[in-house]
Design goal:
The chain is mainly β. The protein contains one helix and 22 strands. It folds into three domains: about 110 residues, Immunoglobulins (Immunoglobulin-like, Sandwich); about 80 residues, Immunoglobulin-like, CATH 2.60.40; about 60 residues, 2-Layer Sandwich (Trypsin Inhibitor V, Chain A), CATH 3.30.10. About 5% of the residues lie in helices and about 50% in strands. The longest helix has 10 residues.
């Protein structure tokens, strides 16, 4: 199974326009951008992964060059010390992986602030982080943290976890009850103004083990999947292969059957 032309293709039953054999190297063009390469300490910048085609399921992680890594395609970062930092985009796609240098960020010291000056809304830098940054399992707890510069400015925060739940706090603990991809945003209000900051996408994987399904009948495997909040799809029975669909789902177990016994099981 592989990605081709905006579709998921299967050897033996490909979509129209897909090759009949597995391509040696699926074509995806990957690049990255840095919103500002000359900044001050604690000034927030945006790092963005860019790909063609846009709908290919590529996983990204940004290495900020200071030892921190953000597992997302759009990363907001800042640096606590002056210096030059090389930003690298790490990617995984279709069983392969690699990296691309995005460029160097030059960080200079901040001029000493004047204590009597009250920061305006435009002067407040707001960002957010997600921990852990790796894919998590259902019901695994994550921490969402808001940060700002300067730190002594009164800002009201509300985290939108992407699953319909909100948490009015600057540090939120949350978990997800179902597999999927959740976009986390931080809503903020300060001095009569408000806005939203994108924190990143959380990938929630089901508690899945293929061995739990092997050796069962299709009916038994389906009942097990339902009990765990998953669905099933039979993609092969003996020599008969059923055409797959182009959608990829974390909550679906694909099963292959031989002599009415499940011999293969995988998500997708």
């Amino acid at each position: 199974m592989w990605w081709c032309g905006g579709k998921i293709c299967v050897v033996g039953s490909p979509h129209y326009g897909c090759p009949t054999t597995v391509p040696g190297q699926p074509y995806v063009l990957i690049d990255c951008t840095i919103s500002d390469r000359d900044i001050e300490v604690n000034e927030i910048i945006t790092l963005t992964a860019v790909q063609t085609p846009a709908d290919a399921p590529v996983r990204y992680a940004f290495s900020h060059g200071d030892g921190t890594i953000d597992n997302t395609s759009v990363s907001r970062a800042f640096y606590e010390a002056p210096g030059s930092y090389t930003v690298t985009l790490l990617w995984q796609y279709n069983g392969g992986k690699g990296s691309k240098s995005c460029g160097t960020v030059h960080v200079r010291p901040v001029n000493a602030p004047t204590p009597t000056v009250t920061p305006t809304p435009d002067a407040v830098q707001i960002g957010c982080s997600i921990s852990p940054r790796r894919p998590v399992e259902v019901n695994e707890t994550l921490t969402f943290t808001a940060f700002q510069s300067p730190a002594n400015v009164p800002v009201t925060y509300v985290f939108d976890h992407g699953d319909g739940t909100l948490d009015e706090t600057s540090q939120s603990l949350a978990y997800y009850a179902a597999p999927g991809f959740y976009q986390v945003r931080l809503n903020w209000a300060h001095d009569g103004q408000s806005g939203t900051t994108f924190c990143g996408t959380v990938t929630v994987e089901p508690n899945f083990s293929a061995s739990d399904y092997l050796g069962r009948t299709p009916e038994s495997a389906d009942a097990l999947a339902i009990s765990r909040g998953l669905t099933t799809r039979i993609v092969r029975i003996d020599d008969q292969v059923f055409p797959g669909t182009e959608d990829y789902r974390l909550d679906r177990v694909n099963i292959e059957v031989d002599a009415n016994i499940v011999t293969e099981a995988y998500l997708g």
